[in-house]
């Protein structure tokens, strides 16, 4: 499952960032859920897939302490369009 989801994320990164690379980043995850059924920690678990895909795309050299300086999670309800938006703040 992780591999197939990461592949989808990877293609989004490639299409949206067009080869942009960062040495170090802060990342803000904006999680839009259709309702409040899932716990926030279960929702935010997916950040692992996103960070690994950023690394696989070459956007980040790694996803360790030196490359990911920090991250934040923000949660919203959008019944019509659940999604995640990832804000990358390069250093």
Which tags fit this structure?
34% helix, 91 residues, single chain, globular, alpha+beta, 3 strands, three-stranded mixed beta sheet
Task: Briefly say what this structure is.
With 91 residues, the chain is of the alpha+beta class.
Blueprint of the fold:
Blueprint: H1 2-17, E1 25-33, H2 40-44, H3 47-56, E2 68-77, E3 83-90
Parallel strand pairs: 1-2
Antiparallel strand pairs: 1-3
Helix pairs in contact: 1-3
What can you tell me about this protein's structure?
The chain is about 35% helix and about 30% strand. It is built from 3 helices and 3 strands. It has helices spanning about 1-15, 40-45, 45-55; strands spanning about 25-35, 70-75, 85-90. The protein has a 3-stranded mixed sheet. The model has no long low-confidence stretch (mean pLDDT about 95).
């Amino acid at each position: 499952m992780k591999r197939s989801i990461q592949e989808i994320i990877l293609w989004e990164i490639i299409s949206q960032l067009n080869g942009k690379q960062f040495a170090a980043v802060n990342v803000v995850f904006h999680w839009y859920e259709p309702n409040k059924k899932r716990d926030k920690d279960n929702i935010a678990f997916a950040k692992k897939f996103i960070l690994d895909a950023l690394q696989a795309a070459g956007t980040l050299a790694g996803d360790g302490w030196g490359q990911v300086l920090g991250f934040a999670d923000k949660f919203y309800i959008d019944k019509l369009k659940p999604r995640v938006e990832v804000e990358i703040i390069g250093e």
